[in-house]
Amino acid sequence: MNATLRRVVIATAAASLTVGLAACGKAKEADSKESRDRQQGAPLTIGLLLPEDQTARYENFDKPLITKRVKELCSACDVKYVNAKSDASVQQQQVDSMITKDVDVIVLDAVDSKSIASSVEKAHDADIPVVAYDRLAEGPISAYTSFDNAEVGRVQARSLLEEMGSKVDRGQIVMLNGWEADPNAAMYKEGALSVFRGKVKVGKSYDVEKWLPNLAHDSMNGAISSLGKDRIVGVYAANDGMAGGAITALQHGGFATIPPVTGQDAELAAVQRIVAGEQFMSVYKSYKVEARTAAEMAVALGWGEDVPAKTTVDSPTEQDVPATLIPPVALTVDNIKDTVVKDRLYPLGKICTPRYRAACERAGLR
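The structure assignment produced for this chain is given below.
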């Protein structure tokens, strides 16, 4: 090849390269424009995966509140909802299905925080951010919102100690803790124990599978048989469903007076038991704040915006995850009006049904 021809070939190749780079640049510009459009409010599809239907809150509050807030932020956005019904393998399949449907963001309340990690990894590989909701799932999550779970346990324990008063030295307490597969359960338990240590003896402690009230009932029966009803001065029940199971066992166990029983979630049945004097307290957690936060995180992630978060948390697999933790409130008969009624969780008419009308009047709930 002579020098002139070589220069023509080189010039042609350079021109082709320039055209290619220009085309590549235009493609990147188009990608950037599409990204900007998404940031400005393009419709999103958000997968909402909740863990179980035994606890009333998920169907009655979390699902509708999250959906409502998403729609407020983006009227054209769509929320696809599924419930795993306490089955970790089913939830893994549900995540896979959401990935196949090419959702933009997943809001995940994990049944089992460890086993779901591989599914979170799959979503991450598919460029689908995951908001861990209420429970800190393992794997590469993009954001997390829940309550201060250790503080939940401390609130329960402090309330129980205060209510038992001098009876603390006369007997033992029974602990009905949550399911071991739920990372929140460990935090509730440790928070409670940090208050109980050196102040009261734990006679029996049970980790109740899947938080099932009937299993809590069975565990409470076992504790009564083992310790004797005269030695039980208080019951730490980690949530309201288990509190209900424990109270039924106590009522059938020959107790002249039911010892104070804690709970969590401010379920309607628990609020009514508190009014009636059967359950001492629950923990009120503003599901509205938690749900709104999760929806805002999901929409922000879908649009490529900064995640609204007040702090960071570490999971066993991830560090510095953007997070918002919401403080819990001890709920007793004295502040029902100022919490669940004021926040419109339940109207008085729903609490004070004919069965509880007299108890409501004694409590000043009119």
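Interim note for the steering committee: The CA atoms of residues 150 and 191 lie 4 Å apart. The radius of gyration is 27 Å.
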